[in-house]
Design the sequence.
DNA sequence: ATGAAAGCGCTAACAT
DNA sequence: ATGTTAGCGCTTTCAT
């Protein structure tokens, strides 16, 4: 007796296979599978049954070519290990899940030539829109974005000239606001700890906004420490040790992100430094990690999830309206959280 | 005087446009752009110049349909916010960057029906291979993977029946090994803190391996605490508080991941508990975060980056050889790191 | 080294 | 409600 087996196809199944198996024309099968147009309930059922039985998976390559529409949204972010960007992606996902659109992620590594390459690859799939982090791109990248004739949303940052729409916060203002809060609280000998600048424009703008606002309060940054490489707790400890050994009289440390701030906090607590009495601290981003620390570092929430949601919404709107961009500018306001490490302190006078 | 401007095309550029602009046949243009076949240096230069000047971006949709080959590798992981998976992705990227293959990421959210949907979407793009986390999938998912007739690599876990190839560690053994180390060190009143099981098979297997090995040493898990929802430091603190209030006589806590272990550690240190004298701790994963904590919790490194690399290598090999799978099984051995929180202790006798 | 023709699997547009 | 035809932009194959 021969054993009957589900045949394992060498050639992937096509609409035609479903058409033959169900005795319905290819066109009607296509309509059923896309739930477009009028199809009788009976044929619909027969088609669905056949498609399921055969294990048919539609070919979007062919579909996209025929319809000249591809429901992909390219998302280009600098890094996945930053913790911030996965949250932006979640926001994007949340919105796109209620649409036929699907995000496709590319990672630019804070490297403009690589960003250019990633975008080129992405555009070769003819996505319906692009969401891209930052406003600083190579001229070629900007040219491609403009020429693609699709909605483009630049996210995270507001300080610059967008190609089309933009959703984010002003990092200059964020830096300035933190500076003001620190100055108002009475801190005077302030150290800055951050990433090496050329890589990260947003960190640079925060630094600029920070120093600018301090200057207006008659304060100069007393010392700074820049690093390269991954930012983990250990890096924050090390940098904090270095800057405090060099400048033991600092009374505040402003870190360019929460992770290194958390490392610095742990270091200071171990050294028995009185926080925030002797030394205040602040980070940036508002990541979840901060919730479990012995003290909650001051930080500024940049509303990552909301940035993702708004950006995705703009793309979805454009696609729905059939327009290739609508030059929106959505300014989100970061929320300063003083936590336990940024407190008004007695004056020195 | 009219101002000459680069015309902004409504219709995306095609090979034909480049062909006309360069006076070279479409076919030859195609050859140049794909760097395949013999083309004279002169024509090549002309084509490249025209393509660049026009800002031509090839249409991979059309190319994929014509060639029946799409250089995408689908990667399906449960979550992006887990810290573990971005590292696996890095490993995959590292290898694929030296090939024409490109990863496309889908997130299954530890949810089999959703995983099924994500895979279906992915397969509709006819990728050259699939890398998917875990061995537990719905029957439909397994059927799709088999029917796709492309290389499939299941990653992270070894304990089960793979569809094709598999790269990972045995979580049962990992749990068992940690149990043995704890027992040998002399701990006897052991608590387990982990995720709610049905969601996460690998955590479940570790738990099974752990309790099994303890049983062989004549020890039972004295108490356990399960949680749902995100795992951050705060969750680790809260769970630790709960279990220690209920069972103050525990002498060891085994956490299902490093993040909650770190939270637990911070909690214990604040409470002034002597670690590892009174209480030992261990987590799981070997994440970078641990490096900056006041004490380094014991953990087990699961070699995430290497898992990604090996998996990608298998796909790349299959694509290169033109085979649709080769049933490899790569068993990685996790590394137990006792850190500062798992130390031999004096016997109670 | 280059070109011409056919067709990949699907859908738009137009029948019926 | 269903079917027919043409063609999306590229590559394969076969000429030259």
Sequence:
């Amino acid at each position: 007796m021969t054993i009957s087996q589900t045949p394992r196809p060498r050639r992937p199944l096509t609409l035609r296979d479903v058409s033959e198996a169900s005795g319905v024309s290819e066109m009607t099968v296509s309509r059923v599978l896309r739930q477009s147009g009028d199809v009788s309930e009976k044929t619909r059922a027969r088609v669905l049954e056949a498609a399921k039985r055969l294990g048919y998976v539609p070919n979007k390559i062919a579909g996209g070519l025929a319809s000249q529409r591809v429901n992909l949204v390219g998302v280009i972010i600098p890094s996945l290990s930053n913790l911030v960007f996965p949250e932006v992606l979640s926001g994007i996902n949340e919105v796109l899940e209620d649409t036929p659109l699907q995000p496709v992620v590319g990672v630019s590594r804070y490297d403009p030539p690589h960003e250019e390459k990633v975008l080129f690859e992405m555009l070769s799939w003819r996505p319906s829109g692009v969401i891209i982090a930052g406003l600083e791109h190579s001229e070629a990248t900007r040219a491609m974005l403009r020429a693609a004739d699709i909605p483009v949303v630049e996210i995270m940052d507001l300080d610059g000239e967008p190609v089309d729409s933009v959703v984010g916060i002003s990092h200059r203002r964020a830096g300035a606001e933190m500076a003001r809060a620190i100055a108002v609280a009475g801190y005077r000998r302030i150290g800055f700890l951050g990433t090496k600048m050329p890589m990260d424009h947003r960190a640079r703008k925060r630094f600029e906004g920070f120093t600018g606002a301090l200057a207006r309060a008659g304060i100069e940054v007393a010392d700074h420490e820049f690093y390269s490489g991954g930012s983990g707790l250990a890096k924050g400890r090390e940098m904090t040790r270095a800057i405090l050994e060099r400048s033991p009289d600092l009374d505040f440390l402003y870190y360019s992100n929460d992770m290194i701030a958390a490392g610095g906090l742990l270091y200071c607590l171990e050294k028995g430094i009185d926080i925030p009495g002797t030394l205040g601290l602040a980070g940036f981003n508002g990541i979840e990690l901060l919730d479990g620390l012995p003290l909650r570092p001051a930080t500024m929430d940049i509303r990552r999830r909301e940035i993702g949601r708004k950006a995705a919404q703009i793309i979805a709107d454009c696609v729905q309206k059939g327009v290739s961009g609508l030059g929106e500018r959505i300014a989100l306001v970061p929320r300063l959280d003083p936590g336990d490490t940024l407190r008004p302190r007695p004056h020195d006078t």
About this structure: The domain at 67-170+304-333 of chain B is CATH 3.40.50.2300 (Rossmann fold). Chain B has two domains: 67-170+304-333, 171-301+336-348. Chain B touches chain A through 55 residues (CB under 8 Å). The two ends of chain B are 101 Å apart (CA to CA).
